[in-house]
Amino acid sequence: MMAALSEVIKMCLRVMAVKETKGKELYKKIVWRKLVLVISLAVTCALTLLLDISTGPSQLSLFEVFSTIISPNHSDPVTHTIIWTIRLPMALMAIVVGAALGVAGAEMQTILNNPLASPYTLGVSAGAGFGAALAIVLGAGVIPYIGEFVTSINAFIFSLLTCLLIYLIAKAGRMAAETMILAGIAVTLLFHSLLALLEYIASPEALQAIVFWLFGSLTKATLLKVGITSVGLLAVVAFLSTRVWRLTALRLGDEKAKSLGINVEKLRLEVFICVSLLTAVAVCFVGTIGFIGLVGPHIARMCVGEEQRFFLPMSLLGGAVTLSAASVISKLVVPGIYFPIGIITSLIGLPFFLSIILMKRRGYW
Amino acid sequence: MRNLSFSYGATSVLKNINMKPLPGKITAIIGPNASGKTTLLKCICGILKPIEGSVLFEGREISKIRKEELAKHIAYMPQENPAVAFLTVFETVLLGRLHSLSWRVSDEDLEMTLKTLESLGISELSSRFLSELSAGQRQLVYIAQAVVHQPRVLLLDEPTSNLDLQHQLEVLDLIKELTSEMRITTIIALHDLNLAAKYSDEVIVLNFGRVYAAGKPESVLSEDMLRAVYGVSAKVNAHDGVLQITILNSIRKRLAKKKCG
Ligand SMILES: Nc1ncnc2c1ncn2[C@@H]1O[C@H](COP(=O)(O)OP(=O)(O)OP(=O)(O)O)[C@@H](O)[C@H]1O
Ligand SMILES: [Mg+2]
Asked: What are the residue boundaries of the structural domains of chain A, listed by start?
């Protein structure tokens, strides 16, 4: 995220520094509007992060919160623990996972040429859920520490497998928009029925662990997990940012893109692998958190369009803000309790999903 | 280009095409629907690989040239272009210069883009989204995208199909001017024979994937050709050195006429 931000700031400076000519003026007008939008969303993101850190079951004043963050050594040990092992990891996890899902959704939509594609709608989350449940039922869930890790790894593996499955279906179906969505439904149903089977044979304790995992939750966030996810996110964003124009050109149709010298198949495959890894990392730690990968890019498209130099950071920020805001809401719904965040995002995301479907008629896709 | 043949799977579409388009000249490809015009253009720009024969660019076979390298010199405007994309007109045209774009867009790219938009009279549309344009406006945008590229070879697939009379003439005037000024090898697939007669230096008639005739418009566009290839009877007159084709009526039935009750 920092990389994207610094890139945006640099562009901002460059745009201000250049002298005027007519072509540039026109370009500046287009770029400025988008820059302002990206920056405002970045500011919003910072604000929701702060809000997220300062809300929670234990009533801490804003001052206490910030002094603990700024000077950890001089603070009350209880407050210190609350902030550093619970609130901060959770709040940062919301930002990072939201950003990762936003980016993953945006690029899935780009390469599949379909605004309804996202890790959740294509069934990747369902695959991860099945993987996690399998690990839990096979007994991994009961081993402390390692058990949790094994569950995450299994979820990771199953999300990758699901991505592979989707890619194969997409290739066979020639990437047609409708085929992809139907394939997503099929994959989701497949994993749901396998999951139901697992739940049927699971012990009551395992069942409870599965259900909890499936709700999607940030409560198990640690700074280590935040770190792993951020590294994945940064690597993928760095990779994608070297391909912004080629990804934008994909919107012109495969033939035009090919005539511009783009190896379309290779580009799709590279990006798909990146995005699959990113999705897998994001969902394996937090469980099923739906619709973020749909809402983030949708906001971005409405605000800045599909030129990837703006679409990419805007989707990232859109995802981050949405999940961060959902995290705040999840603490406010029932005071004193962390309401499962996956339920909140689904409730927020569904109207978006429906509106995108309805926009087909207005030439949106 | 020599001995070019192409097939989609088992159905062969192009058979033994030979042509040698010249720099600074406009070559028009004409022919009925499904005669293989689009396929031929795709073979020329390297999107489709011929099963036999080869396409030469400056003496080198295009399949041996790196794709990025080739794309610097050849611009192709497909027959059908996307209508829905959340891109502004300016960005869409800018993408035509993909080979020189990076995070920072150079002044040269911006100036070229603006100049091209102005020459096609669509600079006021710059910040509009593609989906907010009429089909004709959109076609002008995609023509601009091909032209802004400053190619050595310019391939246009029915660039005037959505344009009004005046725009058709203006666009082709512009292309003719660019072609001779920049010594571009321009190949245009056209349906309008009068436009082909007026603007092209050479005409190639495709029929069922074969070259039926090729040469100067005056020698190719004849009443006999129209009868044989298109199945229409027509009158061809020369007016101040420009051919004028008046179509009279269809002489063979292609579509089953519906019985009116
Ligand atoms: N992707 C494809 N797969 C299989 N056959 C194809 C494909 N594209 C075109 N064809 C066939 O190849 C033949 C030539 O098509 P082409 O598009 O080159 O015609 P055209 O001369 O451009 O026609 P039009 O005037 O309608 O644009 C047609 O018979 C068509 O059905
Ligand atoms: Mg055609």
From this structure: 87-362
Q: Could you say which residues of chain B have pLDDT below 70?
A: 1-11, 252-261
**What's domain A87-362's superfamily in CATH?**
ABC transporter involved in vitamin B12 uptake, BtuC (1.10.3470.10)
Q: Enumerate the residues of chain A whose CB falls inside 8 A of the CB of residue B43.
A: none
Give B205's strand partners.
B30, B213
* Contact across the interface for A27 and B88, Cβ inside 8 Å: no
Give CA separation, A124 vs A204, A280, B2, in Å.
Answer: 26, 8, 50
> Which residue's CA is the nearest one to ligand 1's atom 1?
B8
Determine if the pTM surpasses 0.90: no
Best probe of the A interface among B95, B118, B139, by most A CBs < 10 A, is B95
Of A24, A29, A245, the CB nearest to B98: A245
Chain position carrying tokens 């349906």? B191
Structure tokens at A166: 């989707």
- Mean per-residue pLDDT over chain A, rounded: 85
CB-CB contact of B38 with B32 (8 Å): no
Q: What domains are defined for chain B? A: 2-221 (3.40.50.300), 223-261 (no CATH)
With contact defined as beta carbons under 8 Å apart, do B156 and B77 qualify? yes
Residue type, B227: R
Report the run of H or E that residue B28 belongs to, with start and end. strand B26-30
Give B157-213 pLDDT, tens digit per residue: 999 998 999 999 999 999 999 999 989 999 999 998 889 988 999 999 998 888 888
Cβ contact, residue pair A305, B102, below 8 Å: no
Closest of A359, A329, A364 to residue A344, by C-alpha = A329
Residue A7 DSSP class? H
Tokens of A250: 């994909």
User: Can you tell me the distance from the alpha carbon of B99 to that of B95, in angstroms, rounded to the nearest whole number?
Assistant: 9
DSSP one-letter code for B165: H
- B chain contacts of residue A248, beta-carbon cutoff 8 Å: 87, 91, 95
B55–chain A Cβ distance below 8 A for any pair: no
Closest CA to A327 of A346, A344, A308: A344
Respond yes or no on whether ipTM tops 0.90. no
Q: Does B131 touch chain A (CB under 8 A)?
A: yes
Q: Residue with structure tokens 């149903």?
A: A189
Instruction: State if residue B103 touches ligand 1 by the CB under 6 angstroms criterion.
Output: no
Nearest bound ligand to the CA of residue B79: 2
